[in-house]
């Protein structure tokens, strides 16, 4: 079968022929219907050095996946052949306290996990292929009625990650609150919709691209702004001078983090989602009083069930640009050039069932 492989750090992915996976005991093979191309994959290709992560190439890219159950290993329960499913991306040990609570992103026994801190497309073979091996049925979520695999795939990260970020600050996001989303790309345009669907807060979207700001407006942002010297003042004017209750930074650069700290309200939250590598100095006078600064990694299975349910009811929709598996490398090139609005989604040609 065909698969888009990352064979070494500091390299471009290559489309290769690899053996089709076969399931062992407890495992499931998914026929991939769609796989999202995530901006974090660009960091895997271009920024990481050997030893920076607890796993390394070669592996098949693609950590946002949905498809159909194709083969089931002995002893596997809870899924049926042909069933449409979304794949939960982070694969923990399944036995530590966090994993038993459903928080496999924060597995405390990575030495017992299939790959430490990763999963399919992150150290192990992902979904930029015709078929994908999933190590346990608990990593699969059946799709609700009315949601197809192409629309479900990007929700497994681009929807789930901002959903987790919004959910943890939900108690601060009543009708008088304001939330700011910095970077309205694959994750950010979903964050705007999630805020609109699940909170009463007003939403401010920030992005240098006019097309991204327009997209945010169509999905419910109350105000869309371009970064620049007037950004913080504009946000503070919009909030009556008090600042934002939540800032979700989907970029994570020095500039965006500085802007987040400058426009946050006292007792507010700054949640860093983007991995651009910036830093935010924290000192007594460096951030507003009692502002909480946190990073998040993905979301959990229960939250993915909720995201998929919202999407099945038409409350969340990933804007997608579709590519065939043969053109998957081009999807990443377009993503790197900033020419993708929303999410690039790769559809393995032989497995698509419209």
Question: The biggest beta sheet, please?
Answer: 7 strands, mixed
CATH superfamily of the largest domain: Medium-chain alcohol dehydrogenases, catalytic domain
What is the level 1 CATH name of the largest domain?
Alpha Beta
**What value does the average pLDDT take?**
95
Structure description:
The protein has two domains: 2-157 and 299-351, Quinone Oxidoreductase, Chain A, domain 1; 161-295, NAD(P)-binding Rossmann-like Domain (Rossmann fold), CATH 3.40.50. The protein contains ten helices and 18 strands. It starts with a strand and ends in a 7-residue tail after the last strand. By secondary structure, the protein is an alpha/beta fold. 23% of the residues lie in helices and 25% in strands. 50% of the residues are buried. It has helices at 39-46, 97-100, 149-152, 160-167, 188-198, 210-218, 231-238, 254-263, 301-312, 328-336; strands at 2-6, 14-17, 28-37, 59-60, 64-72, 84-87, 119-120, 123-124, 131-134, 140-142, 178-182, 202-206, 223-225, 244-249, 264-272, 292-295, 320-324, 343-347. Helix 7 (231-238) packs parallel to helix 8. Strands 3, 5, 6, 9, 10, 17 and 18 form a seven-stranded mixed β-sheet that branches. The chain has a six-stranded parallel β-sheet with strand order 13-12-11-14-15-16, with helices on both faces. Strands 2-1-4 form a three-stranded antiparallel β-sheet, with no helix packed on it.
Short précis:
With 354 residues, the chain is of the alpha/beta class.
Compile the SSE list and pairings:
Layout (H helix, E strand, L loop, with lengths): L1 E5 L7 E4 L10 E10 L1 H8 L12 E2 L3 E9 L11 E4 L9 H4 L18 E2 L2 E2 L6 E4 L5 E3 L6 H4 L7 H8 L10 E5 L5 H11 L3 E5 L3 H9 L4 E3 L5 H8 L5 E6 L4 H10 E9 L19 E4 L5 H12 L7 E5 L3 H9 L6 E5 L7
Parallel strand pairs: 7-8, 11-12, 11-14, 12-13, 14-15, 15-16, 17-18
Antiparallel strand pairs: 1-2, 1-4, 3-5, 3-9, 3-18, 5-6, 6-10
Helix pairs in contact: 7-8
């Amino acid at each position: 079968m065909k698969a888009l492989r990352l064979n070494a750090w500091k390299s471009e992915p290559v489309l290769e022929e690899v053996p089709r996976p076969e399931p062992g005991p407890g495992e499931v093979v998914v026929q991939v219907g769609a796989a999202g191309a995530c901006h974090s994959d660009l960091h895997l290709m271009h920024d990481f050095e050997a030893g920076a992560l607890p796993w390394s190439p070669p592996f098949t890219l693609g950590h946002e996946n949905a498809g159909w159950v194709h083969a089931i290993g002995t002893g596997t329960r809870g899924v049926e052949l042909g069933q449409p499913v979304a794949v939960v991306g982070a694969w923990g040990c399944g036995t530590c306290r966090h994993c038993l609570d459903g928080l496999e992103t924060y597995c405390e026994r990575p030495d017992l996990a299939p790959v430490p801190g990763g999963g399919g497309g992150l150290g192990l073979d992902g979904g930029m292929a015709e078929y994908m091996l999933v190590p346990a049925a608990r990593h699969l979520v059946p799709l609700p009625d009315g949601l197809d695999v192409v629309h479900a795939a990007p929700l497994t990260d681009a929807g789930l990650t901002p959903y987790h970020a919004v959910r943890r600050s939900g108690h601060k996001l009543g009708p008088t609150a304001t939330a700011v989303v910095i970077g309205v790309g694959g994750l950010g345009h979903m964050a705007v919709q999630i805020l609109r669907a699940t909170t009463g807060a007003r939403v401010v979207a920030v992005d240098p691209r006019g097309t991204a700001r327009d997209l945010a407006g169509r999905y419910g942002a109350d105000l869309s702004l371009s970064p620049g010297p007037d950004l913080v003042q504009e946000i503070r004017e919009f909030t009556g001078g008090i600042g934002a209750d939540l800032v979700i930074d989907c970029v994570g650069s020095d500039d965006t983090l500085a802007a987040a700290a400058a426009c946050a309200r006292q007792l507010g939250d700054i949640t860093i989602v983007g991995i651009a590598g910036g830093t935010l100095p924290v000192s007594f006078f460096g951030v507003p009083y009692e502002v909480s600064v946190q990073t998040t990694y993905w979301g959990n299975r229960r939250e993915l069930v909720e995201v998929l349910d919202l999407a099945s009811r038409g409350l969340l929709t990933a804007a997608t640009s579709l590519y065939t598996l043969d053109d998957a490398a081009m999807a990443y090139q377009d993503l790197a050039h900033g020419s993708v609005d929303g999410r690039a989604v790769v559809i393995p040609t032989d497995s698509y069932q419209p």
